[in-house]
Design brief:
Blueprint lengths: L19 H17 L2 E8 L3 H10 L4 E4 L3 H8 L11 H6 L5 E6 L3 H10 L1 E4 L11 E3 L2 E2 L8 H6 L4 E4 L2 E4 L3 E4 L7 H10 L4 E12 L2 E4 L6 H6 L1
Antiparallel strand pairs: 1-3, 1-10, 2-3, 4-10, 5-9, 6-8, 7-8, 10-11
Helix pairs in contact: 1-3
Protein name: Ribosome assembly factor mrt4
GO molecular function: RNA binding
Subunit structure: Associates with the pre-60S ribosomal particle.
Length: 229
């Protein structure tokens, strides 16, 4: 029997793709920001946390503008070569927009930007799949930080536990995670329960551009090509 078209399922979460108009709007906004600010920086980020980044961005709202998103769109805006760059030297900045990177347009003095980025460091719980920074091992015996209601949940995470007179007890030593290995979903949950934060959200400056200067903060394999461009 053929399926009725009336019973066709519709995904309510389906969203419209961002088209050409959206990209053009982003490019125009970036061009305006570059015109309105004294310098442009490329920065990289590690263990991005959207809420924490939003707080950092809000602190600089009066003097600066941040851009995160498609590196390709940002490269097109800046110009990929000396022939199509929107201001002299910006194609060098464009070449450094790779991987986890963003753009900062600001009127802050160079020293202030460097201080803010060098001092910025936020700790958070590591997510599944991230690289473990240290070995965490729990020794056999009572786990008094956990209530008796937690025992079934801990067992589901692979921990060899039991209830002993209402106290959660580890019946043998248990390695939660090993240094250098990817973090499993179970280990991530246990570390959160233990209050152990292994992820560090950092922002690192890569380069700085101003109308009369271009400066690299991090040397990479293609830096000679950038300098000669």
């Amino acid at each position: 029997m053929p399926k009725s078209k009336r019973n066709k399922q519709v995904t309510l979460s389906k969203t419209k793709k961002k088209g050409r108009e959206h990209k053009e709007a982003v490019v125009n906004t970036m061009k305006q920001a570059i015109e309105n600010h004294n310098s442009v920086y490329v920065f990289s980020f590690e263990n991005m946390r959207n809420l924490k980044f939003k707080e950092f961005r809000e602190k600089l709202k009066s003097t600066s503008r941040f851009f995160l998103g498609s590196n390709k769109v940002m490269q097109v805006c800046l110009g990929r070569s000396a022939d199509d760059e929107i201001r002299p030297g910006l194609h060098k900045v464009s070449k450094l927009l790779r991987g986890d990177a963003g753009l900062l347009c600001t009127n802050l003095p160079k020293e202030e930007v460097e201080r803010l980025f060098n001092e910025y460091e936020e700790y958070d719980f590591a997510r599944t799949g991230s690289s473990v920074t240290e070995k965490v091992e729990l020794k056999e015996g009572p786990l008094e930080q956990f209530t008796h209601e937690m025992e079934p949940f801990l067992r589901k995470q692979g921990m060899p536990v039991r209830l002993n007179k209402g106290v959660v007890e580890l019946i043998s030593d248990f390695v939660v995670c090993e240094e250098g290995k990817p973090l499993s979903p179970e280990a991530a949950r246990i570390l959160r329960l233990l209050g152990i934060q292994m992820a560090t959200f950092r922002l690192c400056l890569i380069c700085r551009w101003s109308p009369d200067d271009f400066e690299l903060y991090i040397e990479g394999p293609d830096d000679s090509d950038i300098e000669s461009a």
